[in-house]
Amino acid sequence: MPEIKLNLHMHTPYSDGSGSHAFIAHQALQAELDAIIVTDHNVLVRGLEGYYREGQRSLLLLIGEEVHDQARDPQKNHLLVFGVEQEVAPLAADPQGLINRIRQSGGLSFIAHPIDPALPAFHEDDISWVTWDVQGFTGLELWNGFSELKTVIRSRLDGLFYAYFPQFIPRGPLPGTLRIWDELLTTRPQPCVAVGGSDAHALNMRLGPLRRQVLPYSFHFKAINNHLLLDEPLSGDFIRDKQAIYNALRKGHLFIGYDLPAPTDGFRFTASGRHGTASMGDEIPLGDGITFQIRLPMETECRLIRNGVVLKTWHRRQICTFITNQPGIYRVECTLSYLGRRRGWIYSNPIYVRG
User: Cross-referenced NCBIfam families, in alphabetical order (predicted)?
Assistant: First the structure.
């Protein structure tokens, strides 16, 4: 299956970001991304989707939306919306009604930054998702780059350090968000697709005489990306390729990769049995047993997780194999050492082994 690199969840001056769509596309092309999805707050920007090209490289820029109830204080329940051609922000006060409308329109919805703590040092509120009785959403944003920044800053001095050295921020999805995802996977009947989001704003900050852009787009595009596995390569046809990307997101045919320490391209997680072979996001019958194979881009630590519990850990391995006769929801996490600590590297979407 062809693999492409997609970065999503970013903002422009249409809401609270600093860079235009054209500038963001330029930065993404420089980072050798294949596609991005821009998601401004409560506005569906029209007329700017399409292919952007520089030299021999091309980038597909798609436009979604981050919807939340602006009348609520603080503004909880942010939802990423993809593939809907009409404005749905007026439904933000009713999360279930919003999700229903997105589904009826053939779109996708992902709960944005499920846990997004307050940042008192910079007067930022907690804007976590709170309405957990909703049904029918496509998935959630497992790893959010900006939310993670809020968890490592304790003072303005911390903020200054990370503004100049953002590579020290990413450590992995928040443990609470991982627990929420595993609970959703094991308690609700439909799949729950995990994506990684930059939540890029590229804000220009000032602290006394110092001026600095915090987490520029160029940093985000080298960090938390989604690696999608498509049925066929991108063709250059906008409509066809847009649908291919949204189909892969809908099916969970992807893994989240932190590409700054080392490229995650080429990771694969498959399951084989008497009834065929499955990849991330797929279901497979248990039959007489299932053989999992994990292929890593380099030797590192790898964990196979079943129903939220670590089943097997490999150290310094590049190819990992495991045989099971138990149904369940299986996913993979990989870590590696970078800048003096163990950091999350790869998070697969699950394979659903049905009994």
Answer: CehA_McbA_metalo
